[in-house]
Amino acid sequence: MTKVSMTVNGKAVSAEAEGRTLLSAYLREGLGLTGTHVGCDTSQCGACVVHVDGKAVKSCTVFAMDVAGASVTTIEGMANPDGSLGVIQQAFQDHHGLQCGFCTPGMVMSSAALLAANPHPTEAEVRHGLEGNICRCTGYHNIVKAVLAASGQTVAAE
Amino acid sequence: MPKDHGIGASSKRREDVRFLTGKGVYTDDLALHGQTYAVFVRSTVAHGRIKAINTANAAAMPGVLAVFTGEDFKDVGGNPAGWLINSRDGTPMREPKRPVLAHGKVRHVGDAYAAVVAETYNQAKDAAQQLADDTDIEELPAIIDMKAAAADASNRVHDEIPDNLCFDWGWIEDNRATVEEVFRTAPHVTTLELVNNRLVPNAMEPRASIGEYFPGTGDYKLTTTSQNPHLTRLLVAAFVMGIPENKLTVVAPDVGGGFGSKIYHYGEEALVLAAAKKLARPVRWTAERSESFLSDAHGRDHVTKIELACEKDGTFLAFRTETYANVGAYLSNFSTATPTFLHGTLMAGPYKVPNVYVNVKTVFTNTAPVDAYRGAGRPEATFSLERVIDKMCRELGLDAFEVRRKNFLTPDQFPYTTPVGLVYDTGNYQATLEKAIEMADVAGFGARVAASKARGKLRGLGLSTWIEACGIAPSHLVGVLGSRVGLYDAATVRVNATGNISVMVGAHSHGQGHETVFAQIVAEKLGIPESSVEIVHGDTSKIPFGMGSYGSRSLAVCGTAMTKAVDKIVAKGKKIAAHMLEASEGDITFEDGKFSVAGTDKAKTFGEIAFSAYVPHNYPLETLEPGLEETAFYDPANFTYPAGAYLCEVEVDEGTGKVDVVAFHCADDFGNVMNPMIVEGQVHGGVGQGIGQALCESTTYDETGQLLTGSYMDYAMPRADDVPFYNVDYSCQTPCTHNPLGVKGCGEAGAIGSPPAVVNAVIDALHRGGHTHVTHIDMPVSPNRVWQAING
Lengths: 158, 792
Known about the structure:
The complex is a heterodimer.
Chain A: E1 2-8, E2 11-17, H1 23-30, E3 49-52, E4 55-58, E5 71-73, H2 87-94, H3 104-117, H4 123-129, H5 141-150
Parallel strand pairs in A: 1-5
Antiparallel strand pairs in A: 1-2, 3-4, 3-5
Helix pairs in contact in A: 2-5
Chain B: H1 16-20, E1 36-42, E2 48-53, H2 56-59, E3 64-69, E4 105-106, E5 112-118, H3 121-133, E6 135-139, H4 146-151, E7 165-171, H5 176-185, E8 188-196, E9 208-214, E10 219-224, H6 229-241, E11 248-251, H7 267-279, E12 283-286, H8 289-295, E13 302-310, E14 316-328, E15 355-364, H9 378-396, H10 400-407, E16 416-417, E17 423-424, H11 429-439, H12 445-454, E18 458-467, H13 475-480, E19 489-495, E20 501-505, H14 514-526, E21 533-536, H15 554-580, E22 588-591, E23 594-597, E24 603-605, H16 606-614, E25 629-634, E26 643-652, E27 659-669, H17 676-696, E28 726-729, H18 749-768, H19 783-791
Parallel strand pairs in B: 1-12, 10-11, 14-15, 20-21, 27-28
Antiparallel strand pairs in B: 1-5, 2-4, 2-6, 3-5, 7-15, 8-13, 9-10, 9-12, 13-14, 16-17, 18-26, 19-20, 19-25, 22-23, 23-24, 26-27
């Protein structure tokens, strides 16, 4: 075990990790940040998406040691400084973009990265951009609506 | 102006805030002092005899605390089937024991035969691999194909069951001869053989369980991913472990989706409890997704021949089906009800068909257990009916809309007793059909076909008019049908001294939004803000004995119990108010949160009454108990019968066979709607799963019983770019006649109504493209299958 340090949600942190410790396990078990979820074992479901130095990354596919020193943002770091929901989070609530909540952290993190790269995506671009995140509850309808709404666009579908 | 609070308002979900900020608490999120890790050793062969398990090496590995095999559980009980089904000849179904860990034989890939508990997860994982290496299993021929299994008596999933048949069920057996006679003389008969494809439920949160044991009191606690904590407690305590029910608490905290797969008790839950007792430490287990694929109860998996007898004008005379239903290697808790009373009883659809006969042969195979998955039996019934009707329309050159109009039950026919044993209380099927036609702009379809053609695509329109029985279930009825449990639910409404309210409910929310919707109802009825009402669920030490959430029952059954408990609160409040206001009880009215003396300005607020109940200084103590807390149990008088009409438009690429769903319209009748936003979301999710079944999802075992689709690399879950926006309407409302909220349930509708609409649309597109030889394509309607159908 080695002490691995990085910045998570703006705070300097460190925790023990083995060489094989995944970033998802480091966050969940090492730091107790259980908002990052693990829904599969093949890097397909996207529930574990976090941002590493501003890029969306599936944290189940990255060794914690490989991102030592990096700046990581998780779902716990997405609210406004006063604790209120951020724009994307609020859009998900307003448009009922979540049901069981399990895929939600990854959806929000992927959506944030998507909108950072493409502030006014089309519906097709949103759907394509979220292809790496699986949701079993919503049929994606309200997730796509929420992301479009968070981008400031009027949503045609009701 | 839409309401902004209470019944009928699209109140935003209060649970969302914790889920959106990473503060939800799912089972695997809990960290307990002294916790240990269980890893299961699972069979890599579909069928085999366990010759020897040498545990010594694994037990000696670093950090290993305990090793368990089937031998450790051979004397405890088995995980039971919840319904006893009798075969046509009156003999009871065959019920092989389902042990905590496989003993003697392994019966499917993923069948757990041992478990290791260690200090760390990695230590347990390493030791489990060692144990697998030290196990000698003699592989036996796998039994995979249902019809072959039923025909071959030499190879048996369970040695004591010679023909691998669980039961051969006829519904209704007394109708059989009449139905046969109708078919002999019918002017037209359409026959269709089809497969209702096996699905893996795939709730996004994998199953997880934590066992705890408290030596000081002898109490156990199970934290687990369950849709129904009390049912799990009953099964674990009374049937499997033999521990007193009152010494076991079951907690289902935030649960990340269920869709049926988390109704059932699984052996892992018993193992972590037994291990926790042995070690006097918490024992935790979380499934890897690969384990979920191999060991969660799967859904559907019917092979059906359906026949429709009709007049030349499309008037239905009879339906007859013969279905082989795969039950997998063991009987999961609802597995025998799903292909029978949740399937056969729906084979009249929303139609006035006089004769129906259903035969279901349920077969054991060397595959994972199969049980209820969103819709559970009703999607299978609907798919068979709506596909064979569509085929009949093409054979006779009839209009699919007209045929439905001709055969629908009409609003003046309710209550209506179907030939398959249900009594529909109310409905207006033509209203939803006409609504769907309007929503889909069927009049403009021709122009859209031309536009698609100009883009090189074939466009098709598919219809499905569906009905389901939900609000599960009237105990008196299910008892007659073989259920071994009652299916009521319960709620306790506790008015606290300061006037806010805790409501403890037997229903369990794992995505449905009960914390919001149930609070809306209580707030409306008591005239108080929604924020004053807290909904408590998921913990057997807090809630009354309820049966949980599945079968679209939460609102219709538990919501009714809650409503009745609120009514009791109001009734008691009137007695207290009468005393305080020095009036007679009959003169007290309750409205907008105030108890008033009719015709006067004398009144007490709800808060004043609550305070008086807990600080009873001026209170009729001689005739009335202090406190303000009421419990109600509610057992429904009948099922509820949501129904609707779905229209799907697809584009098919003839060159590749790829199908795109370009529009999907749902006109549903759910009775009264409590929160439109949530109802729409439920329909979206169901339709998404239905499109997944129709176009993407395939659970494939090879002939040796290996699951070829055991990960998200191989099992095609529908993704955001596989589906369109859905057009959902719920304005056609015929309120349920037998519950006070007039609600029917909306959780499964989308998954029930959508698959046949999609497949009918694909067939329609192919016919419009001149491929009239294609009469059916089995789901999933993959590009390969469509291309083969076009070119075959």
